[in-house]
Amino acid sequence: AQTVTQSQPEMSVQEAETVTLSCTYDTSESNYYLFWYKQPPSRQMILVIRQEAYKQQNATENRFSVNFQKAAKSFSLKISDSQLGDTAMYFCAFMTDSGYALNFGKGTSLLVTP
Amino acid sequence: SQTIHQWPATLVQPVGSPLSLECTVEGTSNPNLYWYRQAAGRGLQLLFYSVGIGQISSEVPQNLSASRPQDRQFILSSKKLLLSDSGFYLCAWSVQGNEQYFGPGTRLTVT
Q: Which residue of B2, B33, B99, B107 is the best one to mutate when testing the A interface, meaning the one whose CB has the most A CBs within 10 A?
């Protein structure tokens, strides 16, 4: 079974600063996908960034980037130039190449302060 | 562009009553469709997924069922709700690739 662990239940960062959210996962699969989703107070899940395990290059989407360490089974999210609108719960998720289910971590609550 | 709708947004139902939550997707054909449940303070758990009309796969045995009567319509049902069915229910869709896109969700409270 695949498991996803987010070890930071809550984090806080000042506006314009950089913050890194941690995620580790456990799998015996060689082909899989990793995601970060954002859930603001509205509770709608919004895809932030996606990484294919076979790609060595780290994914980047504007102010969001990941540090994917396949051997260590680590997938951290870096948010640069944090904005007040980044305040949300962030979930790391994993999916095998042959599966349908997204396996989610328990989330990290991020607060961006002025 | 693709959009996904869910209704109702909020629902309060007594124990033992039936349930019907609806999800529709616009702007795409033959999507994979999913129902997830989020308990308080937790991530999402996949309940059902569908790769085509009438094709339903269940991930977790429970008091709920799902149906897909049309290509872009996915329904979550129960004949008799339990207190443990309370939660936040999210519908999602995907086409090619593995990223899933979520609807706005339904908050269900069983009293």
A: B99
